[in-house]
Please model this.
Amino acid sequence: MAEDGAVTVYSGSAITDAKKNPFSIKVGIAQMLRGGAIVEVTTVDQAKIAESAGACCVIVSEPDSRGISRMPDPALIKEIKRAVSIPVMAKSRVGHFVEAQILETVGVDYIDESELLAIADEDHFINKHNFRVPFVCGARDLGEALRRVREGAAMIRTQGDLTGSGNIVDTVRSVRKVMGDIRVLNNMDEDEVFAFSKKIAAPYDIVVQTKQMARLPVVHFASGGIVTPADAAIMMQLGCDGIFLGPEVFNCSDPYKKVWAIVQAVRNYNDPHVLAKASSGLEDAMAGLNLVRAGSGN
Model:
């Protein structure tokens, strides 16, 4: 089973051999995005703004439309690829392997098998080992994350808010749950790991790798409700490798300034002086994204 596993390059020693294992190569490609912000865009202009503001990658999605949400138009993807020099990611529906085949043929650098789109197959995820391009998958807990890794995901996107409301509480909850389960796993003896892998319904060998590495065996980004530099920094301080920014970051008068500030927060998440500077002058950063608790009386 080892040849199907993930790869450790964080400490300089690989659990699997990248020369013999294509999956480990894809994991290494995904690690190139560590410490960065991936920005969701729907137009070429937004992609150019994201690149100029320091995004490590853009993820192309359909413009807001009613009805079934699907992969973006391949023509839009090609246009964005010609316009920017950073990697381009695109979304496919869960289980829709033909959409993934099309995206790979178009030449995207990464594919996000996204639960944010309409579900194409309720029972099966894409077998990501059948593709050359690295895949990203969403998860809300450790068991789900490791099941996606077994299927071939080279990056895990810990998912929070799906509505674009700017509420980060679900994302914090999901990230803390994943990190908390990893800390619990680290303190288990070998006999307990068997029971734990059964409890979370995750492959035993991948659970063992996670224990050895004291982290997810692939790159781990956070997504959902991240709209300010402080939001980005808390995700990084909780242990994530980077963040996803939704298209709502462009809903302000100066999207370049906003994306640039969040990118700086990701790069300097432990420096409160840089964070304070990045957070200054963003008075419209939460425009249209403030929540009012039902029944709060506010």
